[in-house]
N-acetylglutamate synthase, GNAT family
Amino acid sequence: MEQNIVIRVATPEDKKYAETITNEMESSAKARGTGIAKRSPEYISQKIEEGKAVIAVTNEGTWVGFCYIETWEGEYVANSGLIVSPDFRKSGVAKAIKERIFKLSREKYPEAKIFGLTTGLAVMKINSDLGYEPVTYSELTQDEKFWAGCKSCVNYDILMSKERKNCLCTAMLYDPKDHYQPQETSEHFEKKSKVYERLLKIKQSKFLKRLRGIEKNNSDRNTNRKLKMSLFNFFHF
């Protein structure tokens, strides 16, 4: 990571970056062809005001990256909206932001379960390094307000067709009362990363075909059985 980048808890003065942040969130989601819950500049500003956001900027004041905290049911915390400016990607900034927002979450809500949804292996790797584990959707908050945030995602129809039990995103969770050590989750991810990359591709293909109403042939059914077995092996250490 570049030495002139500062990663810190956002302050009210950082609200000037809110529109830039939301614009980049939207354009990044479109470029990936995947979804992200759309947020307004006002919402981002609110998170900054509440001290529930981490921002990365250069010493010259150029915006670099951002992430914020959401809370659900008083028991769950989500580190949401991770975004890095295209000019600073693949520099280690995303990992540093995730580490700082995770630390802030633990400071503010030491008893809460911290979770996230992601479609990317890079974020899964970062989460694994922090001690997150892949889980089923049933282990996440069931707060309707959280799931309502998925309505602006391009994959919302897939989520609802699966009765909110699955989608293209992978769910990951850190439970302060019951968790593996970061070294264990990190090593586990390294061992399974190639398998999981394939599973994500199969999962995306299956869900999109189902959404379009394409019937499965015998080959698809065989793939489905293999997918279920691989997921079982992946989710259980």
User: Anything to note?
Assistant: Residues 214-218, 227-237 have pLDDT under 50 and may be disordered.
